[in-house]
Specification:
Blueprint: E1 4-7, E2 11-14, H1 18-32, E3 46-49, E4 56-59, H2 63-78, E5 81-84, E6 87-104, E7 107-125, H3 138-167, E8 177-179, E9 181-187, H4 189-204, E10 217-219, H5 221-224, E11 227-231, E12 234-238
Helix pairs in contact: 1-2, 1-3
């Protein structure tokens, strides 16, 4: 099984908008890979409207998924590193994997095999809110804040559309059936680059990189092709492609 990496371009967010933006991105990715649970329990998507952005996104509606996403965001914030004046940098990795049970002679073991990984690098702007600057008039402060909010909104919308495009791209690496799960990890950008350099050197030397060792039911190939596309504030379901 191939391990496919989907990397989003690094972009900047304000500290006040960070949590909601990451929830939007991660739930969109998870929902794009969430198949029908089973023949008796259908997917019940939940539409969530952002408070700080004119954007709505879909989640799978599972409380444990929301909890796992929120815990990952807390960890991400704790692992930010300085990247310049009033700036910090961080990187989230969202990986989908399946559990494989292997048997060797008299004993068996379980391993986690990652088949897709989404990398979200971010710059976080810690600049104080414009309204706190007493030297600016209320009108000027509002204008500057609106400009910053528009920039953050445009960046988030661009990343959402990139997710839709990549999620609907090559699907050959996705397991056609069985069970799979996801996990979120946080790495500093320089650490991740060092890991990638290590894997690249190993591959060039004819040796495979580090073993990636690292559940949700899939009901067939047509279910995994079900995705949602965003048009303004609306989501449009893209029908399954014939295989």
């Amino acid at each position: 099984m191939n391990h496919v990496e989907r990397r989003l371009p690094e972009f900047e967010l304000g500290e006040d908008n960070l949590t909601e933006a990451l929830q939007c991105l991660m739930h969109t990715i998870i929902f794009a890979r969430w198949p029908l649970q089973s023949s008796t329990s259908n997917l019940a998507p939940r539409e969530i409207e952002c408070e700080n952005f004119p954007i709505a996104y879909a989640s799978c509606g599972e409380s444990w998924v929301h909890q796992r996403v929120d815990e990952a965001i807390v960890e991400f914030k704790a692992n930010l590193v300085p990247a310049g004046p009033e700036l910090a940098r961080g990187c989230l990795s969202l990986g989908f994997y399946e559990r494989r049970h292997n048997k060797v002679v008299f004993w068996s073991y379980e391993e986690k095999v990652v088949w897709e990984e989404w990398v979200i690098p971010l710059l976080v702007n810690h600049t104080p809110h414009v309204a706190a600057n007493e030297r600016l008039s209320a009108t000027e402060a509002d204008r500057l804040q609106d400009s910053a909010n528009a920039m953050y909104t445009a960046s988030l919308q661009e990343r959402m559309m990139e997710i839709f495009t990549m999620a609907n791209g090559d699907l050959d690496h996705i397991p056609p059936s069985g069970t799979f799960d996801f996990e979120v990890s946080c790495q500093q950008a320089d650490q991740r680059e060092a890991v990638q350099d290590e894997d690249g050197r190993a591959a060039r030397g004819g040796v495979t990189g580090r073993a990636r060792r690292p559940q949700v039911h899939a009901q067939g190939a047509q279910n995994r092709n079900r995705h949602w596309a965003m048009r303004g504030r609306l989501f449009v379901c893209v029908p399954p492609r014939s295989e």
